[in-house]
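Supplementary Methods, section 5.1.

A reviewer requested that the exact input to the structure prediction be made available. We therefore reproduce it here, unchanged from the version used in the analyses.
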Amino acid sequence: EKFISIEYLVQPKLITTEITRKEGLAGYWDGRKITGPNTAAHQLQIPVMNGRDTTETHFYTEGGSEYMEMAGLLYVSGSSVKPLDAGQSSKVTLQANGYAKWFTIPQAAAGKTMTVALPSKSSFAVYDEKGVCVNFTVVSGNNKVKLPKNGTVVFAGAPNSEFAITLN
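The structure derived from this sequence is encoded token-by-token as follows.
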């Protein structure tokens, strides 16, 4: 998503999606026909907006991380989401591909105030343990936030953007 996307604010349920494989109709996953080693597609054809979520799903690996592209959204494997550095001063640099970078909030950082020096054309959002957005800089204009216990943080912006972070 673009760093100014409203998705970071209003779609907490889209933050995480669990992929499960239940025994059932062979050759299908989550109502989609498995069409290749890294693809699955719905067999239904519903016109216009009501059919927007029936698009093909693609799985791929890039830079050592697994990704899933589905319904216009890009998901990263939970194994690629690491804890935020709990030190007093740290930096987060986005990859050259410009993908947002997600972090869990470790116990050592929970309750601390995080201040972020934002590069141009960038933002960050913080979510509580239920996935509810507690701060999205595009909306709040606030680059300081108290980190919730068991929450998550996402940094988004232009490729190679560097975010300077302090925790107090």
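Residues 12-78 form one domain. These observations are discussed further in the main text.
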